[in-house]
Amino acid sequence: MRSLVILISGRGSNLQALLEANLPVDKITVISNNPQAEGLAIARQYHVDTLVINHRDYPDRESFDTALAEKIDACQPKLVALAGFMRILSDAFVAHYTERLINVHPSLLPAFTGLNTHARALQEGIKIHGCTVHFVTSQLDHGPIVIQAAVPILADDNEETLAARVLQQEHRIYPQAIRWFMQGQLELTGNLVKVHQANTRDIALHSPGLQE
Ligand code: GAR
Fold first, then answer.
1. Mutation pick for ligand 1 pocket among 6, 8, 14, 33 (CB with most ligand atoms within 8 Å)
2. Atom of ligand 1 nearest to the CA of 140
């Protein structure tokens, strides 16, 4: 059975993009560490099973991660997808899901790991920004890159307008990456991901022009 577990903490717009994408999976379970996450209501709209494991109920990171992994493993997932899951994961957790833990991050990694990526991109004056889907390793916001999408930074951009333009691309590349994974098209060798049976322009870089 191709089971997908999606971890969220908040808004859930990437979750929604994944639920709308009609992915080749048999079962989806959504788990949130935050009982107030708006994404939980989105999941329910799509009649997807939801679970809350509130990190505040656990004394430390390790005990929360252990409880989370127990719930995830009960779903026997082929893949675990972080969709705005704003928790740092312990090394043991990441190791347990080696090569089956994936994340979407709002920058063209390895640039701008961590938080406030759009504000930092604007501050640096870079002209091209974007987003990345990557396998998760123990190094925060690093790991084998599956797909990236670039967006231009415009002269009158602010954090909100830039975030919205990047988010639109996140919603394109995340379902694509998960579809490839589920269809067995991704081959991981060390830090490199090869995508089989896909066009280079689909994999490496969507470069949406201003008109898109
Ligand atoms: C997204 O922009 C995602 O890339 C980011 O959080 C946002 C969640 O939005 N994730 C990270 O920064 C992880 N390092 P969403 O809840 O609407 O999908």
1. 14
2. 14
What pTM was estimated for this model as a whole?
Answer: 0.95
Span 1-49, pLDDT tens digits: 899 999 999 999 999 999 999 999 999 999 999 999 999 999 999 999 9
According to DSSP, residue 206 is labeled: B
* Boundaries of every domain in the chain: 1-97, 103-212
Q: Domain 103-212 is classified in which CATH homologous superfamily?
A: Formyl transferase, N-terminal domain (3.40.50.170)
Compute the distance from residue 83 Cα to the ligand 1 centre, in Å.
Answer: 6
Active-site residue flag, 105: yes
The CATH code of the domain at 1-97 is: 3.40.50.170
CB 151 within 8 A of CB 128: yes
Query: Do you find a cis peptide bond into 208, omega within 30 degrees of 0?
Result: no
